[in-house]
Amino acid sequence: MDPLLRDMRAWGLMLAATLTIMSNATITPALPGLQAMYGDDPNAELITRLLITAPSLLVALVAPFAGAVVDRLGRRPPLMAGLIVYALAGTAGLWLQSLEAILVSRLILGLGVAAIMVAQAALIGDYFEGPARGRLMGYQIAATNVGGLVFVMTAGMLAAQDPRLPFMIYGLSALMLPLLWRSLPEPSAAVEGHGPGAQDVQGEPGWQTTVAIMAIAPGLTFVFFYAVPTQLPYHLAALGLSDPVQAGEAMASMMFAAAIMAVASGWLRPVLGRIGTPVSGYSGLILGFGLLASAATLPVAMLGTALVGAGLGLAMPTFITTALNAAPAHRRGLVSGLVTSAIFLGQFLSPLVMQPLVGQYGYRTAFAVGSAGFLTLAIVLTLTLRQQKRPVDKPVAAQ
């Protein structure tokens, strides 16, 4: 067994991770039902899609500031406050009466997501170093997708009863709060440049450029990737697969594959390298979106989403780990905030970019454009990273 899995801090971080990236997609199976429920609202089609990505706008705007707060005040206060906001705003959709009010609650949810994601990412950098840091980042992404799998499958079953019921899932953060309070101590020594992580307190030469690359790449990745949670339910409905459970199954296929590949990424990264790892991930995304563009049945769609999940699970840990490895210890909160901001900005922009493509050319063409976009990103990322004179991964002894 990996020694990391005997560390309660690692389990606490993985538990917190289940609330972050896929938090937006949790209500995906409920979107068609919510649109039908508010069918008399002329903006229902757009607003229901924005319910998925609205938290991303707030995260994109406030994550860098949250990172600065985390660096100044410590990790635990923002983390615990974020859990409370997440629970209150996330469950508000159960009782709010208009789509516009629900949209506002989703924006407030983004504040909680930003605090949780930035704080727990900084804690990974504080608690662990070297290969252990990379493996834990893979476990964290896996935990995110396992949580997403459970959440989305549950949401699909709840949405079949009432499209409001999936909002109940966000209340789980309140149950997690006491567990995380006990398992995640404040790493004051690491933040001050002593103890674990102190050896890279100054960061790598040119770390700002490395962090910028590692923020821009996942941000653009999510512009295309988020066509899956925002457009796939409607694509399946157009194919005659209108049962919310079927949308939940397709999303679950993606998250299951992402979880498996994210765990493997920590072990594959030393073999594939800092260029080969994300490019291999993009290969899965290219093939997956290509299958979604041609899918006519649920099994083909599930295979496509599985490839998409596997590609994302391989690429994402590399982006975040590389940024944390390059940055100085006292800037980990800010760096986590910048990468988080880019990821969620990509999520928010996704329907604004992809919806016009869907409206003009249809779902198949939109997914085909996404496949071509990932191919372009793979090429550009390869060329950009090859210009870096110094490897961004520190040669730390295996842990």
Q: How many structural domains does the protein architecture include?
A: 1
CATH homologous superfamily annotation? MFS general substrate transporter like domains
Q: Helix- and strand-based class?
A: mainly alpha
- Strand tally is 0
Distance between the termini: 12 Å
Portion of residues in beta strands equals under 5%
CATH T-level topology: Growth Hormone, Chain: A
Order of helices and strands: HHHHHHHHHHHHHH
Give me the CATH architecture, please.
Up-down Bundle
State mean pLDDT (0 to 100 scale). 84
| Residue share in helix | over 70%
Query: What Rg is obtained from the alpha carbons, in whole angstroms?
Result: 20 Å
Tally of DSSP helical segments: 14
Name of the top-level CATH class = Mainly Alpha
In one word, what is the shape? globular
- Which regions are unreliable across 5 or more consecutive residues at pLDDT < 50? 189-200, 394-399
Protein name: MFS transporter
Pfam family, one: MFS_1
Subcellular location: Cell membrane
Organism: Paracoccus albicereus
